[in-house]
Amino acid sequence: xxxxxxxxxxxxxxxxxxxxxxxxxxxxxxxxxxxxxxxxxxxxxxxxxxxxxxxxxxxxxxxxxxxxxxxxxxxxxxxxxxxxxxxxxxxxxxxxxxxxxxxxxxxxxxxxxxxxxxxxxxxxxxxxxxxxxxxxxxxxxxxxxxxxxxxxxxxxxxxxxxxxxxxxxxxxxxxxxxxxxxxxxxxxxxxxxxxxxxxxxxxxxxxxxxxxxxxxxxxxxxxxxxxxxxxxxxxxxxxxxxxxxxxxxxxxxxxxxxxxxxxxxxxxxxxxxxxxxxxxxxxxxxxxxxxxxxxxxxxxxxxxxxxxxxxxxxxxxxxx
Length: 320
Hints:
Strand content: 15-25%
Radius of gyration: 19 Å
Low-confidence stretches: none
Number of strands: 12
Largest sheet: 6 strands, mixed
Shape: globular
Structural class: alpha+beta
Distance between the termini: 17 Å
Mean pLDDT: 91
């Protein structure tokens, strides 16, 4: 099997189709493009999500916290606690484990979330450090927001820049092959400080967002396709409107990879009725954003009519 996430067709046919809705307390169950579950605990909605970190050697602690919190934020929910499983390869060292724990602690403090438990194990089943985290979050006053809430005619906003996480991971784990200067490598590694979307997620949830999806594996195009699939409508994207750092462009040109399909934790797609108003509001809280598309009745394409197919393995796996 190919590295990376299963294709959406395989995910649905091999796994999701086996599960049924059995409990009335469960108000959001697994579907393609939906990253969170939601459970009604007697009037308050608990939002839950889980994610592994498998493709990074460095910054694994920080990514574990932020990627999990981002899923909750995309549902308009405030992250509260995190359960973390850490799988350690036999060649791992105590110093490395302690460093990962320190990263987890610092990222959790930054995200205002508590590490509330988990599991740690040395196992020959992995050849590199692997984490898997489950986040518990509290829905906002307007309830949960899912990617299914997008409607034809709405504006599509993207926050920050394409390829944030991918650029940082490549600069850290494949530095000698990037062709970047030392200064560019340092700047690219610093992108890791931008991988949280909690701030924009909570803001957008309170200011008119009807659907959100954080941009992870598969990049901007992958997130757009998943959001369209979840909502049952389509999307037209304007790639020239997508914000992208020159270093990301340089790395993608060097390796011959598509920046629109590169993992982009730190960016979020938001559907709303007033895109320009949302962009201005986000700018006021320090989040750059741009209107990059429009929701339509069906199909996912660029403005020139080029079809955007279902996402496959992320471009990062071609390098790392």
